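[agent] plan:
  1. take the single chain provided in the ticket
  2. run structure prediction with default settings
  3. attach structure tokens to the ticket
  4. add a short note for the reviewer (M.T.)
[agent] executing step 1
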Amino acid sequence: MNFNDFKNLSEQEKRHYLSTLLIDNGNQTDKRFPVLKSMLEDIYVPFPLTDIQESFVVGRLLGSDDKVGCHFYCEFEKKDLNIAKLKHTWNQLVNHHEMLHTIINSLGTQIVLHKVPDYDMPTHDLKNASHETLEAHRRKIRNELSHKLYEAGQWPLFDLQFSLLPNDNVLIHLSIDELIVDASSVDLLLDQWYQLYHDSSYELPDIDVSFRDMVMAWKEFEGSSVFQQDITYWMNKLKNAPGGPSLHVNQKPELRDGYSYIPRYRLEGELGEGLWNQLKQKAGELEVSPTVLLLTLFSQ
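[agent] step 2 finished; step 3 output follows
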């Protein structure tokens, strides 16, 4: 079945077709999809990077002096928090999730470290500080962490700090490299951290497969005839694909006073519902996602 035929199926027909593929996959020697096998006994054996991890590593090695790493940073303020308990529960997460004690070695593979020490999280006491001192401190920590470039071969690939503020408020600063997490992972970590802190009976769920298992299943699948057919299809598509946009820079970015990095800013805009629906309809006619259409328009 080709893409257009599949697109014209009803939701129920699509589900039936996909379930048939899954059944067929279980009956074939050359699988249609990766087959996940639990191999926890090999968890500390080095394993390959995923494609997106490779792109992150290459991206921070190339370019000018303005090197950046793809990572997550957030700040959130809460009242009456127990700092010792916050630290203890975070270290529980580090010990539970192998990717929180994983590094990228010099051979370009990743390895889960067998043992790591409890992570020592800096605590800054500003309970009696003036407003000016507080703002200067916020800027300093944000400057250090919001654009932090981690060394992929050095643990940890995250940073967590606490600022004690007046009126028993606590400002939490969390930075983590996306070599070891994605957006869903961060949501999961924050949810589990909250549960561990607030509920003494909460237990982290057992993990019967690892990220390494997933990567190895995919690497094995890359040798299948199905994968080779798929990659050949897309490589042929690329032959006729348009080139990337030529984005012009009016002037070379330079470091600003007080900054250790060249800051990036998020651009925001808003479209009315009617115009947005028209754009989505146009994207559908072109068989591209709305994201691709918007990026193309932005590049022009």
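[agent] step 4 note for reviewer: Strands lie at 47-48, 71-79, 102-104, 109-112, 123-125, 158-164, 169-177.
[agent] ticket updated
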